[in-house]
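Two folds, back to back.
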Amino acid sequence: MAILEIEDLSAGYGDGFVIRNITLSLSAGEFAAVLGRNGAGKSTLIRAAQGLLSHVRGRVRLGGADLLSLSRREIAGKIAYVPQLSEAVFEFTAEDIVHMGLYARQSRLQGLTARDSAVVEEAMSLTETAALRGRKMAHLSGGERQRVFIARALAQDTPILFLDEPSLHLDINYQAEIYELLEALRNEKGKAILAAEHNINLAAAHAGRLICLKDGTVAVQGAPQDTVRPDVIRDIFGAKVDVRANLHSGLPEISLVPGSRDR
């Protein structure tokens, strides 16, 4: 059963629409990645699907409830959001950030319960950020900060997790680390995960479904084996690629054919 349903969704900024007529759903325990060129609407879709944009048309349902009928606190009880690493939180410690996940769905005046403390500890344990708890975010590496943001989302204790470009500005080791963590959250916690991503190989290696946007609409979606094809990549990204099966996983991965990018 779908935990998130998006129907004929158009959204944008000002008077124009960046995404148009998008229909898709996400089930509990499913990991889907949204791919597309810069400006295709990946981040706009992630923001619109959680009610962060005002210029929208269409419908989003969370667990059967219309998004527009829910308060921000009710939405925060269903969707946790991990933004791009540009979020300015450098004066806070890692533990401060994780505690913000609690405050997203409850008042700061309530005070922490024993269960709240346990949720924070589990979130920091799962993301291996407990050793960072007293350190300022400004003193952490990009990969460490990203793990802290994911810990904040886990402390929010929601069935759905949205991420906007989780591998952006991270080296290859941290990219693998973040995506292995997301896979564990899907497998062990049953999280429904929707991530906007620019790295095709990374998404194909970890997400069960790829949603490819072109000019603000869904051009193709399906399993990596069905969507990571030379003709699809050429159409979506304007690049000619070779596609081969990964020697270890058997999943498709691409390499760019030099000098063949469309201009």
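---
second:
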Amino acid sequence: MALHADKPATRILPPAPYAAALLGGWWLDRQVHALPLGGGAATHALGWLLIGIGLALFIWTLWTFHRHHTTVNPYRGASELCMDGPFRFSRNPIYVGDWFIFAGVALLLETGWPLVFAPLIWAMLRYGVIRHEEAHLQAKFGDEYSAYKARVRRWL
């Protein structure tokens, strides 16, 4: 993997694995019905709560990118290294938010089938997206990014 300061060599559109897992999980649920996940008002309330947390994290991250005049686009190069806002807690707050939304939608669908795909989603994001973003940030920001990585975890 070559290090590129101009832009990451991202291979996968980040929301795609989540969407595919939700769609595949929904389809499997209709075919097999073997992994029911809760049901009723409490399950739906928790699902909506998780979606709300994920959306709030997404909006907070977008606001942080906006304040720093840098891009959220995983195919474009960063113009500034964001280390404040949600980036104080996670180097990938949008992807963490996506996990909340993913789990919330699975609860609303009342099926565990999408969650079966979680390890595959993780691997696709880690190796198809995040490693390329990290290589770009390392090439562009060097020691500053190394110090940031030492302080802040990749996920939570």
